Write the C-alpha cells for this entry.
Amino acid sequence: MYILIVDDDALIRKWLTMLLKQIPNREISVDAAENGVQALKSIQNGPVPDLLITDIKMPQMDGLELCQVLKRNFPQIPVVILSSYDEFPFVKKALQLGAIDYILKADMCLEDISSVIERAEKSGSVNAVPADDFSYAKEKRRLLEDYMKSGRKDDHTFLLRLDPRLQLETLTLMMFRLDRNVDSILGALAGQRCPLEAVLVPYDETAYLPFIHDGGASGGSSMRKRASVSQFLKYLPFPVDAWSTVLNCGEVGVYAGIQTCQDVLDFKLYYSLDSFEQIAYRGRGEAVQIAQIPFYKSFFEVAGRYQIKEAEELMRKCLDTLHGMYCHPSDIKQYISGMCHKLLSDMSMFETGGDWFSSTLERLHEVESAPTRAARKSALERFFEQYGAALSSAAPKRSNAVLQALAYIDEHYAEKISLEQIAAQSHVNSTYMSELFKKEMGVRLIDYINNLRVIHACEYLRFSNYSMGQIAELCGFNDQNYFTKVFKKFLNTTPSNYRVDFKR
C-alpha cells in the first residue's frame, strides 16, 4: 500500500511515517510532501497513492484546497485529515469535500492509523464530479481572477490548482467569445464529454478560456496544436463569434498568453475579422505615434481656443485615421479618451447644470467600452451631443472678478489655494467672491475646485501608473482619504474602482 503524507511539520511527518511502518501484516511504502502543491506534483508524476493523509494549515496550498482539487481530478484517492482540537470547523469542511476520516495530532497512535487504513481500503473512491465536468465554472473563474489580479508568475502552481492534468510545456491556450452568458453555455455542455484534455474557464460574462493539453511530447508540434484547437471548436455545440489562441504557452507563460489571447480577440471582434489574411495585425502598443497625425495636434490647439465644432470634427478625423491604420482598440481607447478629457477639462470654464459632468462622463464610458469600430463612432457622436447640450446651457457672460477667479483656479488647482487668495486676484473680499461665484456659476467655489481636480484625477487614473496617494497630491488634495471622499461624491465610485473599470 502506497501512502502520501502531506504536512509542513517535519516532526509530524517523521512520527506518522514511523507509526505506518509499525502496522503489522502490511506492506506499506510512504512518501511525504510539505504542502498541497508538492503533493499534487508527486501525484502528477506518479504513482497515485492508495491513501493521502494531509494537514489542514499549510503554505502555498492548504489541506482544504488540496481536497477540492483531489475531489475534482483524483476522486479515487481516499483522504484523511490531520487536525488539532481547535480546527474542527475545517475538519467538517474537509469531510464535506470528501475526506473519509480525521486524526487528532495530539492523540495520534498506532490504533488510529490502523483504523483509517482499514477504512481507506473499504471506501473505494469518494463521490466526486468527473474531471471533465464543467460544473466547477465559478471555482475555476475565481482561481483565474486571483491569478490575474496578483500578477503571479508561478504558472505551475496555478495550473495544479486548476487541474493537475495540465502541464505548461504542452499547454495550448485559447479564448473565444459568444453572444451568451456563462449559465447558458454550461447548460449546453451538460452531459457532453470533451474529446480533449481541456479545462474550460469563464473569463468574463461572455468570453471563455479553454486550457488544452494535447498529451503529447513536451512542446508538441504547431500543426498538432492547431489540430487540437480545431477539434475543440468542432466539439462546441454552438457557433463561436471569434477566437484566438497561443500555441506556445511553455515559452510565453500563462499570464502573457492570456493577455495575448485577449488582445487578439479584441482586435478581431473590433474589426469584424475572421482571420488576419487581409490585414497586418497591430498588437497593443504597436500603433503609429498619434502625435504624428496632423489632426491630433490641431485638435488640442483648436480645443484650447474653445472652437468646439472644429475640435469635434478633428476628433472624427483622428478616429477614422486610427481605424484606417487598424490600430489596436485598446490604443484607440486611450487616444480618444485623452481627447474627450481635454474637452471635459475645458468645460469647467463654463457655467452649466449641476449634473453635466456625470451625464457627459457616462457618454464617455460608452465611447471607451465600445466593442466595435462602428459602436465607437456612434458612441462618440452621442458624447458630442451630450457635450453640446451642456454647452448650450452655459451662461456666456460673467463678471471680470469671476473670470479672473476661473483663470487662477485653472492654473493653480493642483496647489493649496484658499478663498482669500482667489478673491485677492480680483481685489474683492472673500465673502463677496464666494457669493458672486455661487450666483454666476451656480455652484459653490469649493465644489467647483474639487470638480476640476476630479476631472484631472480621472486622467491620471486612466493613463498613468501613479499610486492613489501620488494622484491625490498631483491634483491638489490634502490627503488620500479626502481625495477618495470627494471623488466618490462626484462619481459615486472610488478612485480604485474607477481605474479597475477603465482597465477592463
The chain is about 55% helix and 10% strand. The longest strand covers residues 171-177.
